[in-house]
Amino acid sequence: MTKAKSETTSDARSETAGGLRVVRTIAELRGLLAERRAVGASVALVPTMGALHDGHLALARRAREVADVAVVSIFVNPLQFGAGEDLDRYPRTFDADIAALDALGAQFVFAPSVEEMYPDGPSSTRVAAGEVASLYEGASRPGHFDGMLTVVSKLFHIVMPDVAVFGQKDAQQVFLVKRMVSDLDMPLSIDVVTTVREDDGLAMSSRNRYLDETERKTALVLSEALRAAADAASEGVDEALAEATAAFGDHDGVELDYLVIVDPETFLPVAADATGPAVALVAARVGTTRLIDNRPITLG
Ligand code: PAF
């Protein structure tokens, strides 16, 4: 308690004009949040890797709506990047991120160093994400979801939020986080916010900034394919997949990774004769940039 109080005072200069406070250590954040909880405040967490866009800001806004205190974490988690992936070049736009979060009234940004999160090097204890984690994103990025759930689990233990807010854009991530929370009896709820899109339909992503002008146009094929799947969904799974695949037909410079329709309850591929709510998932490489998107559909 004493420690938390002295840290609170000594770090007062990290507060921005709008009252947002940037916290770098676990001890300091725990102390500050304990003070808020002691007066009855509820806490919402938005885990991010920074390079914030309007999709992230929608999550932060939701956090402000559903809890008294909104904590946004900004941490590019090395554990969830594989060899040869974009860990080193992942966009880092810290000052702009802070300004945007300050403007919408978030109270805390937790921005720890890698050493603060993993003082003994990459943690040897990991959350095993289970069978679904080896499919789709997990098939292309082995170990990604174990690394993601490990850091999300650490953040949940550090922040102890009443609610954590995630974006539907990363549908498999959302499914696995919910599963972890349920399997491991974590005492919080998960709030999911609809994907935010550019005017032309491209799902917002921090990785969109890797795209050059031509690639940016090509990238529209993902949302177009999902729209085609949604339009054909009343005719059944095969037709929906055929129409979505056809959307990729005419495009150069894009390599389809997977296109699949899954059951939202199990996240496994639906049977050929499935009807009712489902989710169409797509991943593709546009130039050197790997993009994902998804859309709820209703199979007829
Ligand atoms: O979605 C992301 O940005 C990351 O996977 C997350 C949830 C912040 C964990 O590092």
UniProtKB/TrEMBL annotation:
(R)-pantoate binds at residues 80, 173. Its EC number is 6.3.2.1. Its main location: cytoplasm. SUPFAM superfamilies: Nucleotidylyl transferase. ATP binds at residues 49-56, 167-170, 196, 204-207. InterPro entries: Pantoate_ligase, Pantoate_ligase_C, Rossmann-like_a/b/a_fold. One of its GO terms (cellular component) is cytosol. Beta-alanine binds at residue 80. HAMAP family: PanC. This is Pantothenate synthetase. It comes from Agromyces protaetiae. The gene is panC.
